[in-house]
Amino acid sequence: MNDKVVLNHWAHEWLAGLGLGTNWVEYITLGIDIILVLLLSLVVDFIARKVILRIVTRYVKRSKNQYDDILLEKRVFRSLAHIMPALVIYYSLPYLFDESVGLIQFLQKLVVTYMIINIINVGHKFLKALEHIGLSSPRFEGKPVSSYIQVAMICMYIAGGVFILSNLVDKSATAILTTFGAATAVILLIFRDTILGLVASIQISGNDMVRIGDWVSMPKYGADGDVTEINLTTVKVRNWDKTISTVPTYAFISDSFVNWRGMTSQGVRRIKRSLNIDIHSIKFVDDELYKKLLKVERIKTYLEKRHEEIRLSNESKKVDKSVLVNGRHLTNIGVFRIYMESYLAEHPSIAQDQTLMVRQLQPTELGVPLEIYCFSNDIAWLNYEQIQSNIMDHLMAAVDHFELHIFQNPSGSDFRGLRG
């Protein structure tokens, strides 16, 4: 025993006085030392969490500054509290294990490693708090705040790893960086796919881009189905034809893909289909067609209201009604568009709280497209296909009632009819 102050000196003397062997005295004393370290760390941790942290929390809640509230919400202060017990243990080890120099150094390395990991954790939560502040601040609106934070996190993780390795092998951080720099080319050449996959996995996980069970579409790799496995180098997708596509993990970072998770979470699926109307069948609604369309219940109220509105407008302007081009008139394609909207608005399988419209697109050599844009409230593939097929069946059958015709390229039977 040297002349240092030893916290458990009395236990060592008492055990020796019992007549125990030297080895037994050392083993039992070592056990007492470990218990003392654990108790001391628990006491300091209790004080840090239950006393100091409560005081800090109370001050933050009373403060008018919103930034410290975000730091508290992200548990930055709680993570900082875990460093205090480690500091106490680090400086107590020489007094508890006064004769075991090798053991002291080993335990201090472990404590320093723990503190570095904890500091990295604090830094991670602090950066997350900064990201939250940046995204909610109008000053940084439209700026890639998340990208900057991710770069800072990567740099922090690399620096933390270097310091941990430097502490464990008793080498300076500069020497370790120099060694890594010389070996970088070889490492990148041998472990290229693994490194790319590792980085991609971190980004995919951090940004929540893909999960197991997601439906993804990636035409470049022939993948269109559910994700069944995500590992370091590959992502396996079970396609709808029951084949398996294996996609490199980093492809989900470097290439574009569609994740249909949003559709699944919302419980709706988009329907976007068009009817191409023959331009030659488009005309004004005359009295005969108007009387015919009044019998259609879905648009009767609309027709009566619009007809009266147009009549009053034309009378006020003294329009010459003998020529249909003069003044205002209903058109059969416009009335049919309203009919399509009314039909969709009444359909039980269409989500009425989502976007619902029928729009006229740019005319082409195939006619004038009337496009349906709405959402089915059933996302099951079979049910979805039946819903949109039933809608299109009805509209294609109803178009003739409006004296419109769907455009269709002439077929062999058309040419045979001309010949006859």
Automatic annotation (TrEMBL):
The entry's keywords: Cell inner membrane, Cell membrane, Membrane, Stress response, Transmembrane, Transmembrane helix
Main localization category: membrane
Residue ranges annotated for the Mechanosensitive ion channel MscS domain, each copy included: 193-261
Taxonomy, superkingdom: Bacteria
GO cellular component terms listed in the entry, alphabetical order: plasma membrane
Segments passing through the bilayer: 27-48, 80-97, 145-166, 172-191
UniProt-annotated location(s): Cell inner membrane
Protein's GO biological process: cellular response to osmotic stress
GO terms, molecular function: mechanosensitive monoatomic ion channel activity
Pfam families: MS_channel_2nd
InterPro entries: LSM_dom_sf, MscS_beta-dom_sf, MscS_channel_2nd, YbdG
Keyword DNA-binding set for record: no
Record's keyword annotation contains Disulfide bond: no
Membrane topology: Multi-pass membrane protein
PANTHER family hit by this protein: MINICONDUCTANCE MECHANOSENSITIVE CHANNEL YBDG
Protein name, entry field: Mechanosensing system component YbdG
